[in-house]
Amino acid sequence: MCIGRRYMQLWKGKKVLLVAKYTRVERERLEHPNVSEKQLLKQLSNQGVNLKTILESHNEHYNIVKEVTAAINRLDVESKIINLKDINTAAVSWADVLIAIGGDGTFLVMSSYVQNHQTPVVGINSNPSSSLGYLCLPEICSRNIQNTFDTLEKQKYFFIDRRRIRVSMKNTKNKMEPPINMYQDFVKIRPDSHSSHDMLALNEVFIGDKMPGRTSEMECKFDGNMPIKIKSSGLCISTGTGSSAWSYALNKISVNEVRRILNYKFHQISEQECIKIANDYNKNLVYKPDLEYLQYTIREPTGRSLWQSNDELIKSDKIKQAEVETHCEEGCIILDGFLIYVFPKGAQAILTSRPEDSIKSVMINVD
């Protein structure tokens, strides 16, 4: 971590880009441009959508967008604001400071366009009533936007250099297609927006067959060790930032599981001991976002390697590098849950974590 006041003045004379998420209400309007507001709301209600919830969320988001815009306008900066659906590499490269107004999804999408690891990135949770916003400033910051910007202007902040995963492609016979972007209405984005041969993920990378019910076959080398052939439901590789997200969900153990395993052998294990064991184990799954390690998890392995020793297959471990060759029928690589690349049979991917690929995330200490 790096203390902000020793590093730079965050705002003065800088170019600031604000990227605001598009809400459920906006998405529905985009998908039904020829339907009146009244008809649209009736249609959503008939589908079982809670109109009160999505309208409150929409209004809360735009109230915070308005407050952030007003706070920025009081500073000595040049600023622009764009909607998340319109984000592009040129807009992000223009900025000296980036502000994501939304939640973790908005932060992840925006960070995927960041090429300069010295660019500070601020996340502001625009729905603190219903969203945790792990990557954003603490909830209290969303409750008092002007006070938050006063705090930032006084340089009372620090940086977290969040490591990302770099995915480098090898042995692809044909030029890879641009990815499908789940946040931009399943439309293939411009090739210059995300490179097809060097990709970056902040939370995690998933590699597997695009059909969930089909076995994912691949050959993996972890930290240069002997290759192992794996049949499973896919491979998840996460960063320290992602260790509290999908990776955590894949690896955590419940109190019931601890109780069932221990009671199979021992009959005098108390509930308190089971809770402590589960909590201690799960706590160790999460590690600091600035560490160089990656965490791999093999989901539901179904077959043994032809080259593997008799030792038990290690389903999850920390590594520094992974090399993966896909043998999936319809392989894919998914970055942070929203960028989907075709990963053709026989192609290879090398996954590493480099300091120059980090995201400089701005945080505030809250007493």
TrEMBL record:
GO terms for biological process: NAD+ metabolic process; NADP+ biosynthetic process. One of its GO terms (cellular component) is mitochondrion. SUPFAM superfamilies: NAD kinase/diacylglycerol kinase-like. InterPro entries: ATP-NAD_kinase_N (IPR017438), ATP-NAD_kinase_PpnK-typ_C (IPR017437), NAD/diacylglycerol_kinase_sf (IPR016064), NADK (IPR002504). Keywords: Kinase, NAD, NADP, Transferase. One of its GO terms (molecular function) is NAD+ kinase activity. It holds the Pfam family NAD_kinase. Its EC number is 2.7.1.23. The keyword NAD applies. Belongs to the NAD kinase family. PANTHER family: NAD KINASE 2, MITOCHONDRIAL, PTHR13158. This is NAD(+) kinase. It comes from Aphis craccivora.
